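Practice problem: predict the structure.
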Amino acid sequence: MELRESIESINRKLLETFGTEFGSSPRFRVVFSEDQYEKRWTNFTDEGFELLHPEVRLLPKYKQFIHAKYILERLVPIPEDVETDLTTKVSYEPAWVFQDKNGNYLPPFFEGCVYVIDSLRAAAGSHNVHTRYKDKNESVEERKARLQKVEDDLFGDENDITDALHYGNAVGYTTSKTLIN
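Answer:
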């Protein structure tokens, strides 16, 4: 799988930019769906047999639903009044799956994470969302162009053919039947 930058680099930048919460846990992180497990109370064995009493087991978090993709996670508290099978008071929950509109893999990148996080915070009504990250040497037009590029990278242009050409997994023909890439 192609990566624009290493996951370690993205997570380091997320930590430096957004800090920690609930002790020393990063507020945001990027993880691979196949690698994530969490401790949960369960009534079943790994083979599917029902147990007499529930027990804590290490269970896959995403791989049964999200296959081979990177996920931007956000650290959230678990309210006391919410019934859950988790064993912790806080949990990383998915904020964004790096995939196109057809569910195909997209490589994670830091600017895309910032875009998603800023959008989440703006939707939640956070104040001064953009002032913390504003580049004083960047004009309004330059900022709009940079954000449009990030948005295009995250969402494509809503066209299957051009998305496939952009990501290098399509072949097309001109009217003269000449192969183009």
